């Protein structure tokens, strides 16, 4: 049985004070939750506030990106060991907004994923097709290529420690969710890639989260699909009640 992971990506929202007040309201709402792992990813500067607020709870804290070097003259960057030292346990890698606005590629995704693993973090590696790619019938090919270049070169041991998030770009922040069937089909394609490269057991153990306009109203239908092992949530994770109702699907 794959334990679901419900992860929240706060993107560039919330100050340290807002971070603390979120956790004050959120933690009591998910205190009894043991059916899934819960992860919240604030901006870098608020990692310490989030780690402090979540201490002793069932909520883990992650970053939204990292650089692949451990330290050095890389102005503005943050490394895996720094995230781990701040108390983070997870890190999102290759989010479509990073690919779209900051030149992230499958090659950088691979380097960052390895760097995260070397720092003992769990990378949440994002893949997904654009609307144009879906409408021209290229979804499976795009996912296979992203898997091949960004994930396939990992060792079996490394692969066993990652999470994948399938995030169709057309569904992120648009209010347009993939239907449970469309999402499940993409997850099946990704699991097939995993099976071909890493074998049956690794593919069966792989947890693939769905991301793209997940809300309290649609999470149940998505999570009813056996292929879907959790969610990566953007907009709907910013309010404690909303994210708690997603977590407690
Ligand atoms: C995301 O940021 O990963 C995401 C899926 O955003 P939203 O839920 O707002 O579509």
Could you walk me through the main structural features you see in this protein, from its secondary elements to its overall organization?
By secondary structure, the chain is an alpha/beta fold. It has one domain (5-247): TIM Barrel, CATH 3.20.20.70. Helix content is 43%, strand content 15%. The chain is built from twelve helices and eight strands. It has helices at 16-30, 47-54, 80-85, 96-101, 106-118, 131-135, 139-150, 156-159, 180-198, 200-205, 219-223, 240-247; strands spanning 5-9, 37-41, 59-63, 90-93, 122-127, 163-166, 208-211, 230-233. An eight-stranded parallel β-barrel has the order 1-2-3-4-5-6-7-8, surrounded by five helices. Strand 7, helix 11 (219-223) and strand 8 form a beta-alpha-beta unit. Helix 1 (16-30) runs parallel beside helix 2 (47-54) and helix 7 crosses helix 9.
List the helices and strands and how they pair.
Elements: E1 5-9, H1 16-30, E2 37-41, H2 47-54, E3 59-63, H3 80-85, E4 90-93, H4 96-101, H5 106-118, E5 122-127, H6 131-135, H7 139-150, H8 156-159, E6 163-166, H9 180-198, H10 200-205, E7 208-211, H11 219-223, E8 230-233, H12 240-247
Parallel strand pairs: 1-2, 1-8, 2-3, 3-4, 4-5, 5-6, 6-7, 7-8
Helix pairs in contact: 1-2, 1-12, 5-7, 7-9
Phosphoenolpyruvate (PEP) binds near residues 211 and 232.
